[in-house]
From TrEMBL:
<feature type="domain" description="Methylmalonyl-CoA mutase alpha/beta chain catalytic">
    <location>
        <begin position="56"/>
        <end position="127"/>
    </location>
</feature>
<feature type="domain" description="Methylmalonyl-CoA mutase alpha/beta chain catalytic">
    <location>
        <begin position="136"/>
        <end position="462"/>
    </location>
</feature>
<dbReference type="GO" id="GO:0004494">
    <property type="term" value="F:methylmalonyl-CoA mutase activity"/>
</dbReference>
<keyword id="KW-0413">Isomerase</keyword>
<dbReference type="InterPro" id="IPR004608">
    <property type="entry name" value="MMCoA_mutase_b"/>
</dbReference>
<dbReference type="Pfam" id="PF01642">
    <property type="entry name" value="MM_CoA_mutase"/>
</dbReference>
<dbReference type="InterPro" id="IPR016176">
    <property type="entry name" value="Cbl-dep_enz_cat"/>
</dbReference>
<dbReference type="InterPro" id="IPR006099">
    <property type="entry name" value="MeMalonylCoA_mutase_a/b_cat"/>
</dbReference>
<protein>
    <recommendedName>
        <fullName>Methylmalonyl-CoA mutase small subunit</fullName>
        <ecNumber>5.4.99.2</ecNumber>
    </recommendedName>
</protein>
<comment type="subunit">
    <text>Heterodimer of an alpha and a beta chain.</text>
</comment>
<comment type="pathway">
    <text>Metabolic intermediate metabolism; propanoyl-CoA degradation; succinyl-CoA from propanoyl-CoA: step 3/3.</text>
</comment>
Length: 619
């Protein structure tokens, strides 16, 4: 509507009085900043933003800026092949995703109480670990007492007991008079994951035969999981996780069609499981790329277009035992990414899941994380929120291509089973874990609350031990924080035995302004290893202060100019005063005398901390 005598503009142009920005203008600004910081070599002739580019563990180069000039493969439309933008044309609008909660307690009464609390407060499906040290199959009916299984589907995690678990679940469903044609959920048969976890051969054919036998009578019930978690939890990259999961899916397709199902019927028996991490963009791209990969597999298999059923689980590898409350933030970001990426079902692991059986408070926070993202942020109110992002579309395409290379290489090895048996996959994952371990050790991949900003005064959280899912002999299962947490464990044992933590004296040199930054850096670093820093602040005689502190190891903290004047003399004085080792907070230099080691940004923090603990005699 306009006032009389006026004409509405055809287009509203904001900030029209300014010149349109050009990429060259931005590049000039980037070059200026890099030059001031000393990161732009004098003879550098390339694009300055290339110095800000980073690489993923799959070698994908991440640029600092993406524009419309960065062409990508068209992503298509939601609900249509290749399903990059989602398997349903309406997305999750109106329904949201499936809020799936995991339970593994062996006591059916405890499980039932927790299950009912979850379902009454936002959960929509159950993921039950049964058999072994988890919930006994004979107690399944008790654990599901008063659960409306026509409204809350059950996904089983039965290990090798999938035949018996299927019978137990179908008996419970029959007792509740749920029609066979309306039964949903997943029986959780996954011999490939059993092989990956245990290193022992598990034949796929019986699982395929089970799925084929139930297909006609239970058309909505999926029977098999193609799980990417074992490869992620062994320290693998996103492309390695995708490639292995797709290879597992192909192995199951072959077995299911051999069992008499068509390709379309076989694909409908499968559900894929992927890890969602705190790297939100890689998680979004991973789920989008996975659907594209599977669409290509089904296409070349001669099937009609069919989307991938996805279950995203917040990464257990990224969870910490120390400062576990920070895990709430990690899982929130991961859940956000899973929702944006289009996962059909999402499991948020409680913040204490790395410690043991989660308590009621942790389960409540995990549920409410999803409730807030679904209801309060309206995250599911938009179809494919990341669609059209130049960065996300480029990353999706690059990751899909990297994962396809992983998948085809596994196929060249004879398929997922042969690649597991030969050690090919283990070796590939070990290479990535070695790279990741170096970045974790140098804190280039920081872990808040553990390798960065630790809290030595925190009270250790205790939980009932969770049943192990690793039988040994298979792929390793890692947590990124574990090496640092093992150093903290040594510190705790020392505290229990001696009444105090191992300490290190920070010998601050020069005026306050010259040593504050490095003293703060050193304090943060040493606490990551459970070593209590003794910082006297500005003192006239650091050697005398060292004697009074009772410490036996010291670290010099000051500016480079102060080091040039005082470091040698102070280090010599500290040695005479009984210091077993003298470190220096700063870049290594041969000009310093009497220095045992250096602590600086990018140093191998794990090695420095281990050496200090060894010097202090902390076992």
């Amino acid at each position: 509507m306009t006032q009389a005598g006026t004409t509405a503009p055809e287009e509203l142009v904001l900030a029209a009085e300014f010149e349109a920005p050009r990429r060259a203008d931005w590049q000039k600004l980037v070059a200026g900043v890099l030059q001031k910081s000393g990161k732009l070599p004098e003879d550098f002739s390339g694009a300055p933003e290339s110095l800000l580019a980073t690489r993923t563990y799959d070698g994908i180069e991440i640029q600092p800026l993406y524009t419309a000039d960065d062409d990508t493969v068209p992503a298509g439309f939601p609900g249509l092949a290749p399903f990059v933008r989602g398997t349903r044309p309406e997305g999750a609008v109106g329904t949201g995703w499936d809020v799936r909660v995991q339970h593994a307690h062996s006591d059916p009464a405890v499980t039932n109480k927790a299950v009912l609390a979850d379902l009454e407060n936002g959960a929509s499906s159950l993921w039950l670990r049964v058999g072994g040290a988890a919930l006994p199959l004979a107690s399944l009916a008790d654990a599901l007492n008063e659960v409306y299984l026509d409204l809350a589907p059950v996904v089983l995690d039965p290990g090798a007991d999938y035949e018996a678990a299927t019978s137990a679940l179908l008996d419970v469903l029959g007792e509740k008079n749920i029609p066979d044609s309306e039964v949903t959920g997943n029986l959780g048969a996954d011999p490939v994951t059993l092989r990956a976890r245990t290193g022992t051969a598990h034949d796929i054919a019986p699982a395929a035969a089970l799925a084929a036998r139930l297909a006609a009578k239970h058309p909505k019930l999926r029977a098999i999981v193609a799980d990417g978690l074992p490869y992620h939890e062994a320290g693998g990259s996103d492309a390695q996780e995708l490639g292995a999961a797709i290879a597992a899916g192909v192995a199951y397709l072959r077995a299911l069609t051999d069992a008499g199902l068509s390709v379309e019927e076989a694909a409908a028996r499968l559900e894929f499981r992927f890890a969602a991490t705190a790297d939100q963009f890689l998680t979004i791209a991973k789920l989008r790329a996975a659907r594209r990969l599977w669409a290509r597999v089904t296409e070349v298999s001669g099937a009609a277009p069919q989307g991938m059923k996805q279950h995203a689980v917040t990464s257990s590898a990224m969870l910490t035992q120390r400062d576990p409350w920070v895990n709430m933030l990690r899982t929130t970001v991961a859940c956000f990414a899973a929702g944006v990426g289009g996962a059909d079902a999402v499991t948020v692991l409680p913040f204490d899941a790395a410690i043991g059986i989660p308590d009621a408070f942790a389960r409540r926070i995990a549920r409410n994380t999803q409730a807030i993202l679904l209801e309060e942020t309206k995250l599911s109110g938009v179809i494919d929120p990341a669609g059209g992002s130049w960065y996300v579309e480029n990353l999706t395409d690059a990751l899909a291509n990297a994962a396809w290379r992983e998948f085809t290489e596994i196929e060249r090895q004879g398929g997922i089973e042969a690649a597991l048996d030969s050690g090919f996959i283990r070796d590939r994952l070990a290479e990535t874990w070695e790279k990741r371990s170096k970045r974790l050790a140098t804190r280039k991949d920081p872990i808040t609350g553990v390798s960065e900003f630790p809290n030595l005064a925190e009270k250790r959280v205790e939980r009932e031990p969770a049943p192990s899912i690793v039988d040994g002999g298979g792929l390793p299962r890692v947590r990124y924080a574990q090496p640092f947490e093992e150093l903290r464990d040594r510190s705790d044992a020392h505290l229990a035995a001696h009444g105090e933590r191992p300490t290190i004296f920070l010998a601050t040199l020069g005026p306050l302004a010259s040593h504050t930054a490095r003293a703060m850096f050193a304090s943060n670093l040493f606490q990551a290893g459970g070593i209590e820093p003794v910082n006297p602040g500005e003192v006239s005689d650091p050697v005398a202060a060292f004697r009074e502190s009772g410490a036996s190891v010291a670290c010099l903290c000051g500016s480079d100019s102060v080091y040039a004047e005082q470091a040698d003399d102070v280090a010599a004085g500290l040695r005479e005063a009984g210091a077993k080792a003298v470190l220096l907070a700063g870049k290594p230099a041969d000009s310093y005398r009497g220095i045992s080691g250096f602590a600086f940004t990018g140093c191998d923090a794990l090695a420095v901390l281990t050496d200090v603990l060894e010097t202090l005699g902390v076992k």
